[in-house]
Amino acid sequence: MNRTKVEAAEANRRRYEELRATGQQLTPKGLPEPTALDGAPISPDDIISHELVPAGWYATLRLRRGEALRIVDDSGRSSVSLIAWREEDCSERINCADTVKVQWSAAISKGRVILSDMGRVMLSLIEDSSGAHDLLVGGSTPASTLATFGSVTRNTQQNFLAAAAKVGLDIRDIPPCVTLFAPVSTDEVGRLVWNGSRKRPGDFVDLRAEMNLIAVASNCAHPLDPARPAASGSVTLIKHRARPAAADDLCRTASPEAVRAFAFTDRLYA
Fold first, then answer.
1. Model confidence, pTM
2. How far apart are CA 62 and CA 214, in angstroms?
3. Quick check: 55 and 233 in contact, CB under 8 A?
4. Hey, which of 11-15, 31-35, 212-216 has the most confident mean pLDDT?
5. How far apart are the first and last CA of the chain?
6. Cα–Cα nearest to 206, from 251, 244, 238
7. Which of 182, 266, 162 is CA-nearest to residue 222?
């Protein structure tokens, strides 16, 4: 490699480190504390639909831009794996890697966003009492349930396949998922660990749709959850009308990267 290429590589690396430092230092300072369990009540007039999803099952929902979905962990024992596609063009889908990369963090909570593979914002976390969610491990599979429980039980991979088939999609269309109420972190040597003390009955997340979406929520035990037998409990899904985002909306202004992603998204619907 000649000197010019080495210098360019070093300059690019320095610029990357500068951007990472800014993203990791400034954004967390602007993020709020978790929502109180009894906070952010939904007006009955704003509720569009209300659905109970038993343990092991899933639900498919269509969300219009500006609507929100509240997901409630009723018992404090559930984890909800979520995927989504843009309704008008299902080749655009949720992208966990870009969600981590753009926000310089594998942790998502109130004030963060979930991005698509086209760099647009699919969902904003406008309320969140938990702050314990997983973008790294993914949902359960037949192999993981067999290894864990000795038999193939209901699992997220098969739920996603069934949901995709109902809207004309197949296994090639299923992206890696976000799993809510899954307190996964890394320890000092980089191993993934489960922090069960962070789970509480009644924890909830409000996800505001920033584009028209087809979303699937799977209520299956997380692969790292140590509970035996498998953690189980219902979750409640409440689709409701969200208040329009103000000019200083936290999700839209938390970072320069979020501002750019929203500008790209808004252009789609201009």
1. 0.90
2. 5
3. yes
4. 212-216
5. 46
6. 238
7. 182
